[in-house]
# Entry
Amino acid sequence: MKGATILLVDDDEVLRQVLRRVLTREGYDAIEAGSVAEALERARQQPPALALIDLRLPDGDGVEVAQQLSQQIGPFPFLLMTAYPLRLRDQPELARAFDKVLTKPLNLDELREAIASSLATNSAKGAPTARRQVEPRPEERAEAKPSPTATVPRIVPPTPKKSRGLKWVAASVVFAAVAGLAVALPSVGTTGLQRFFAPAPTHPAAAPKAESYARLISGNDEAIELPPEVIERLDIVSRPVDTAVAPRPLEMAGSLSFDPNYLGRVQTRFAGEVVALGTIHGHASNDYPNEPILRYGQRVGKGQLMAVVLSKDLGEKKSELVDAVIRLWYDESMLAKFEELVEQGVVPVGTVMNQRTLVGQDRNAVFRVELTLRTWRVTQDEIDAIKEEAKEVYEMRTERSLKKEIEWAKVEVRAPFDGIIVEKSVAPHNLVGVDFDLYKVADLRKLGVMVHAYEEDLNELYSLPRGFAWRIRAGASGTLLKNDGIQQVGLIVDPTQHTAPVMGLIHNDDGNLRVGQFVKATVDLPAPANVVSVPPSALVEDGDESIVFVQPDPTQPRYVRRRVAVAMRLRDAIYIRTQPNERERRKGCQELKHGDYIVAEGVLELQSALEDLRAKK
# Structure
């Protein structure tokens, strides 16, 4: 029943692709599903004439699929695939819904006959069959041959599903390669598979055309020679090895942040009460109540008044300076009088010595208080004003002013640099400590950028010089951002994410960028030394070795299999070492140099053909 729609239900994607190719070659229309839910959905969209179903699926089993398809669409043939025939022997009721049970790995002749027989029986019963008209392709008509019975050798024996993952995938890949070669390589020697896939002859007396055959080169089991028509049919393309090795682009995601060098925490030097806030013109709000006070998002200049705090500690320390200065002046005047009286013989010399000791102590007290005030960033003008107040009190020209001494207790908090208020946490009459952030001011003309690199890339990033160029783009818009290059690679790896931060600076002169904004950074890491570049299609890998095919003479259709050492794998290129290390040489890896011609397309077919010829030999 050529043209019938066949539903393939199996969670092995590679096997589904192989079976789809087989059925398409036979003229059927194949649709795929990897689970029970997907199978039901695909069947509703395109009702099948037959279903080929795996017994074990991620969200159910083949029996459940068959039952639900029968209920929703109606009766039609079901074929069961399983790698567990013993389960059906123990539970024969599982197979009742199916026309036939096929054991994995599949026998292609048995599969073809089961499909044809089930469709024919269903058609004879009068059941509807989904069809499509399929015209054979020209090459199929030209190469049509009789199709004697041929059984494809099994790739691997059935194994329990929990342990067969990689083995079954590998088997399916090989199976796919062999299936493809059965159609594409009529001259390589895979005659049994070729007969299975080839369409039926258009006339019983049609004779096969003469064929040229691939052959092993004498004395070298790793070399194969192909006739020109086979090279053309397989689309084998050779090209020279590329030494213009492109840098490896490393992409990292992250976000923008404040530049820590220009993020200021505005704090008071003394604990106390906030008695006034700064205004936009740099005045205290108490002195200019009609001026608007500073708010979040407003710009401030370096040294601009931002708050006034009344501090008991500062007031007391300034008063202590007044007391120390008055005491010093008093003791100095007494010393001068005692020295006059000693000369007159009125007082003993010991009295003068004691007074000199007191003066020394007074001077030390004054120095200690002044040093403390300077440490607290009290200016020299303020200290001189305190001493002037002390002089007036000492000379009894005025009494101590309570109002003035209260002013001494006020601490002015000023902006550390030009910037924008990005955080405000203070209000009038708040009690604040020395570790409390009244404001945070940031210069947003430059922002920090922090992205995250996986630890396997850190060694290469550490080797880059400071300022190494990278491309940073804003998240959604993809706008390229002006930056100063990589500034630092973090020294600590996150044990959960296995990443470390990579940091730099972004120019934000127009102010359009925001802290926390998502960005992507791309670094073009230098390519490794002593490598050549080949396209991914030129390499055959089985997990243990990497193989390319070299064409020693570009004018001769001879190809030599060569094991190579892979230095790095990228999305669009693979870097091969020109000089394998000792360990790689012991595994059979050879050099690949600039100027060598390699097969860039058709490598899988060459590999399969070579193995086929070696096996026959």
